[in-house]
Task: inverse folding
């Protein structure tokens, strides 16, 4: 959502114990900053049919290492909850609540069953 040219995935790979955690996390932060700072190219605008747009809406892959990153000048989880997925989380919870009404359960029931630290931080 929000990127006019689609989605791109970037994965940083290394072999186990190739670097220390301090080196790895710093390296990942630098890659994220470069990636998030790349302006999008809007092929419908500008000279010769190409123009530079805003920075892409960067979001991490849920199953990858990203919780140590700073995004938008704040902790990644806070940035995702309050900026990157702010509207999507509200929409998600609204749809879940509608389904719950039809099925006889509420969001509290979902939280009780599926609660974990990440889910609670991002969604509840």
Result:
């Amino acid at each position: 959502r929000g990127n006019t040219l689609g989605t791109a995935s970037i994965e940083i790979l290394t072999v186990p114990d190739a670097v220390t955690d301090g080196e790895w996390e710093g390296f990942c932060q630098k890659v994220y900053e470069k990636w998030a700072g790349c302006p999008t190219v809007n092929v419908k605008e500008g000279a010769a049919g190409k123009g530079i747009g805003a920075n892409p809406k960067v979001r991490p892959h849920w199953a990858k290492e990203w919780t140590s990153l700073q995004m938008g000048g704040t902790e990644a989880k806070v940035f995702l909850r309050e900026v990157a997925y702010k509207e999507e989380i509200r929409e998600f919870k609204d749809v879940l609540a509608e389904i719950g009404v039809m099925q006889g359960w509420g969001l509290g029931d979902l939280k009780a069953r599926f609660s974990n630290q990440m889910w609670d931080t991002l969604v509840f």
Remarks:
- The chain is about 45% helix and 5% strand.
- Residues 42 and 51 are 5 Å apart (CA to CA).
- The two ends are 22 Å apart (CA to CA).
